[in-house]
Queue: 2 jobs
Job 1
Amino acid sequence: MTYRVCFVCTGNICRSPMAEAVFQARVADAGLNGLVKADSAGTGGWHEGEDADPRTVAVLAQNGYDLDHTARQFQPSWFSRLDLVIALDAGHLRALRRLAPTEQDADKVRLLRSYDPAADRGDLDVPDPYYGGVDGFEECLEMVEAASDGLLAAVREQVEGRAA
């Protein structure tokens, strides 16, 4: 049974597709393809059907990541098929927990940077780079990469627990 993770930001064109690409690369490097699947969505549908922001694509490509992405809006019905829903900031966390049909579903929602042991526990948000320059996208990538190893370790533990 595949372990499913969905990354969620506001419009699903910057932060969440970046997190999806980085995490899926970590999954592949760990030999967990087929056992773990990542995707992404937005809390809103403003960019639904659009490609990722060109700056996201460029920063990912410059750092060796692939991304094939079309934006979509997160739907509450998805909770039943997801094992983990990863919010990119506290606003997304609150919105997703409000959307959750059950308390068990709300418990699936976590902040990405909570998996980064070096992150400031007082501010676990990945800032939205959309209105800035490429440096904001690079900073976003650094934060995503720093949290992805811890997230992978947590997911691997869950996947191995299922197999046991």
Note: DSSP finds five helices and four strands in the chain.
Job 2
Amino acid sequence: MLTETTGRTAQDLTAELENWRGVDWVSVWDGPPQGGSPEFRAWCERYGWVPETFDRQLNVTTRSGGSWTFSDVLGGHWSPVRSVDHDAWQVRASTAAENGEVLSTAAETWPAYLQAAEAVLGTPTWTGTWDAEDFPEPPEPGYWPDREFRLESRRPYRFAYWKPAGATRGEPYVVLSQSVSFQVWTVDMPGGSTISVDVHAPSEFLRARR
């Protein structure tokens, strides 16, 4: 039997993306103040974020109940931030015999989550599968895997991204992707699939911090 581990729905994804409307992206990429300080609490409360951890990476829970991870440029320093990431859906097989069901369930689930993202972000800049001839190269390393990795690992398995659409300073690239674990392609290990959202700092912010 397949197990969905996030407890989240496509409607929840729409709500999560709505929560990011009106965010001051410059302050997000600059990163939070020192953890536990009054300034840090005010920084989180500004957007209704509740901090979950105070170790190497900052994790917060949003007003909609989703968990997001802030990934920093330097590694373990919290700021500056390069991306904010969220697992919107994740399914796991209990036996290898269910790997075929993982693939069929992933195929059935993806359109609903893509539509949920489109409800907030509009039409993607590009969407398709790992083996598409016109699959775009990432504008920055780390936004998503390059062609060599993708063709070798079939990851991301399904993919959509949105370029910054407005003139707001710091507006991110948004990536919705579905991965399928390598175990799915085996006959002796149970696999799984994940739909995730990655919100990336724009190139000019990343380059200024290198």
Note: The beta strands are 3-4, 50-51, 58-61, 67-72, 81-92, 126-129, 158-162, 173-180, 192-200.
